[in-house]
Amino acid sequence: MIVVMKRGATTEQIEHMIDRVERLGLKAHPIYGTERTVIAAIGEKRDEYRQSLESGPGVAEVVPILAPYKVASREVKSEPTIIRAGSLKIGTSTGGVIAGPCSVESEEQTLVTSRAVKAAGATALRGGAFKPRTSPYSFQGLKEDGLKILAAARDETGLAVVTEVIAAEDISLVARYADVLQIGARNMQNYRLLEAVGEAGRPVLLKRGASATLDELLLASEYILNAGNPDVMLCERGIRTFEAHTRYTLPLASVPWLHERTHLPVVVDPSHGTGHTSLVAPMSAAAIAAGADGIVVEVHPDPESALSDGYQSLNFEEFENMMVTCRRVAEAVGRHITPLL
Ligand code: PEP
Ligand code: MN
């Protein structure tokens, strides 16, 4: 249910209603909008709860939340959520470009990449230190050494660091170095991990599972939101279909579909979404045209020698050219790509 407070309801009235919701054994999620405050009351649905809350002080109405996802839903919060993490701002007319290598391989590789992507206009640095690889024989990441390299790149360039966490026991370590915690496609339905990142005090980039529906993605975000973390960005990174020409199939209709249903920002990863360097720039431009709040792109100084995902990584020149096109498309749809540096 959503307890919609009247315009001008006082802080005491709002706090009183949060308390009443909690006394009913429900979880209260107050959302302070510019126009009015609503309190999402999550838990078992009972008609008598609704009636009892409706008579509360400062309450305009109590309405059921129809969507299966509750806190992520536009029904609960109509204004878009804006997420800030250092140099990155996502969810407004400012679009975010998160760029960097698939994996942190060395200090030199990460530092030169961070300088190049910053110069081309990226707003955050990506790079995996803990890598979820399909084969246990593939490069697994530099782990804490990789995190230290990312932190050094942030110190030098000012770019916020986005990096993946693959296990709950690594969260405190990764959160010490990262500005944004990435949950990868393979872990989208690892619910204990989702709850744990919900308590980590860092914004989360939640990638869609390769076989997950959009409802499942939204329900996954709900685990993080319910744990008390409002800063979740959703990432469309492609799904597995019968089509074999691209690594995954990148459904860009997800962007406007998600925007209609959730206030959370939506970003697109055209690198994993296509699996081919030559397709990344056109699909980045298409994602921005479709209204994406940001893109996540893999960039490497020498893609041919990359330890992971070289075949879908851009070199510096390709990234620079892509940014020129993306900035033009962004302007055309009323957005700007500007780092907060
Ligand atoms: C990545 O971002 O490098 C990654 C492993 O992505 P995904 O989880 O989407 O496969
Ligand atoms: Mn990758």
Could you explain how this protein is built, in words?
The chain is α/β, with parallel strands linked by helices and 341 residues long. 35% of the residues lie in helices and 18% in strands. It has 11 helices and 14 strands. An 8-stranded parallel β-barrel has the order 7-8-9-10-11-12-13-14, surrounded by 7 helices. Strands 2-3-1-4 form a 4-stranded antiparallel sheet, with helices on one face. Helix 3 runs parallel beside helix 11 (316-332) and helix 10 packs parallel to helix 11. The model has no long low-confidence stretch (mean pLDDT 95). The chain binds phosphoenolpyruvate and manganese (II) ion. Residues 102, 128, 132, 184-186, 207, 237, 269, 272 line the site of phosphoenolpyruvate.
The radius of gyration is 21 Å
What characterizes the major β-sheet? Answer: 8 strands, parallel, barrel
Determine the structural class based on helices, strands and strand pairing.
Answer: alpha/beta
Anisotropy-based shape: elongated
Strand content: 15-25%
Instruction: Count every beta strand, where a strand is a DSSP E run of 2 or more residues.
Output: 14
Low-confidence residue ranges: none
Residue-averaged pLDDT = 95
Provide the spatial order of strands within the biggest beta sheet: 7-8-9-10-11-12-13-14
Question: Residue share in helices?
Answer: 25-40%
From N to C, what is the helix and strand string? EHEEHEEEEHEHEHEHEHEHEHHEH
Bound molecules: phosphoenolpyruvate, manganese (II) ion
End-to-end CA span: 41 Å
